[in-house]
Amino acid sequence: MTTTKTLLVPDIGDFKNVPVIEILVRPGDAISIEDALLTLESDKATIDVPSAAAGIVRQIMVKPGDTVSAGTPMMVIEMADEVAAATVTAAPAVVPAAAPGVVAPAVAPPVPLPAAPTASPAAAQRAAHAGPSLRKFARELGIDITLVPGSGPKGRIQREDLIAYVKGLTADAARAPAPAAPGTGLQLLPWPQVDFARFGPVRSEPLSRIRKIAGANLSRNWAMIPHVTNQDEADVTELEAFRLQLNRENEKSGPKVSLLAFLIKASALALKKFPTFNASLDGDTLVMKDYFNIGFAADTPHGLVVPVIRGVDRKGILDIAGEMAQLAQLARDGALKPEQMQGGCFSISSLGGIGGTFFTPIINAPEVAILGVCKAAMKPVWDGGVFVPRLILPLSLSWDHRVVDGAEAARFNAFLGQLLSDMRRLLL
Ligand code: CAO
Known about the structure:
alpha+beta; 9 helices; five-stranded antiparallel β-sheet; 20 strands; seven-stranded mixed β-sheet; elongated; binds oxidized coenzyme A
């Protein structure tokens, strides 16, 4: 047989019409004597109202926002016979958390009661054993009080328990490895420390200023940009014949034209046709450029520099060749001005005068692609009937996979190859 009991708000001293701010149990919860049922908050103190009996919550008669005084019915609980028999009607102590300077009201003394039925996990969560001021403090800290282990009598949560819990959370956060931002955050091993002199004679030479600056930039670009390099070939047989003829014609008057001048011009046209290559990433935004400035890597005794030829789309091959020669000379003399190395959209690194077949050039951030060129070589090419000797130029296009996809890169390279194979296309 079961007995129901209506629990009333106990004597809460001088407090009257106090607003309910939280209901700490739900119908169906098993509660023990002294389990907190409601939280009341007056302008002077926060009060947790404990249960005077153990049982199962069947009906809750108040809701947040209601005002209550001593004697207001709070809820109906169902008590087991033996529990009901032992339950006293007197309300247990209500211990309001006094606000600073507020004297706690007189309360009834606690009454010894039989062991309570085990609280359900749900009830345990909502009815964590803690004083109202501590609950309020935990709410202010954004801490779920039910997660704080209590060290007081009957597991009651003390102020020190809450502080220790918060300290633990802070220490855990400090120990946890910093989460990597999307796409960044390398956790590398320290650089190997080797005593080279143990293995033979050594000399130390400090890095040049340019090499240090270039090294720092290259490291960042290599580490941060997901590089992919597409390799292709261009048949430059006719182009080379034309270039030699041009140089013969301009031997006395004009600048010497190298293959690189054609590559610079052709690249500007390819950027026009494939605008995502003429862009820079700025956070989540792609800045598309309507100007065509092309940098070229120049090898100097002090290190690598990248002078920039501006407005390539508006310049002819002879202009480009003349400007390139000037900038290359300034680079070798260490006399380039900063603005002569700024504003680039795309870079070309040509090792054609030296050798090699293919390589992986490193993108010059914040550009999104770079063209690497190696030495053109005569190769047998099948023309459909016979093998014919053709001058083949190796092209290596590195691109930023955050901005460009492989198919687009392959098209860019193929288009560049078409332009170089048939210079008439530069006019289109
Ligand atoms: N295939 C075949 N021959 C080529 C060629 C190519 N792709 N590119 C140039 N050549 C030839 C030139 O025609 C020239 O021959 P001639 O003297 O018979 O006319 C010779 O090689 C030397 O050319 P060059 O390299 O001096 O001239 P350029 O205009 O091609 O390049 C410059 C100028 C400044 C880019 C170059 O001197 C340079 O510094 N290159 C190195 C760039 C570099 O270091 N890149 C790597 C960056 S990553 O570390």
